[in-house]
Amino acid sequence: QVQLVESGGGLVQPGGSLRLSCAASTDIFSTYTMGWYRQAPGKQRALVARITSRDTTNYADSVKGRFTISRNNAKNTVYLQMNSLKPEDTAVYYCNAQSEFNIGVGAWGQGTQVTVSS
Predict the structure, then answer these.
(1) What is the number of other CB atoms lying within 10 angstroms of the CB of residue 72?
(2) Parallel, antiparallel, or unpaired for β 46-51 and 32-39?
(3) Quick check: 28 pLDDT over 90?
(4) % of the chain residues with pLDDT over 70
(5) What is the DSSP letter of 100?
(6) How many Å apart are CA 24 and CA 72, to the nearest integer?
(7) Using only C-alpha atoms, what is the Rg of the chain?
(8) Is 61 buried (19+), middle (13-18) or exposed (0-12) by CB count in 10 A?
């Protein structure tokens, strides 16, 4: 199975930046679609960004132009660069891995808190 370990969350002022990292344990990382999701208190977990094995990306409308997802297959790591952060971005951010060959194979990270406040 795949284990995901996230890092990079923290407190930042509006307009600031953070870079989240998610390291995966799988030896077939390159065959997974990787995604970042977020969940604010009282809200459902929602997609922020995803990147496929072919490096195709998809972003939530609320983060387009501000966030960038990328992956380094040699390091089994996916990143989320977050710029121009807004208070509305405050949430727990979760990394997700989904096998592109087996629908039932996937995993969630433990989550990392991002707080945007002055």
Answers:
(1) 12
(2) antiparallel
(3) no
(4) 100
(5) S
(6) 11
(7) 14
(8) exposed
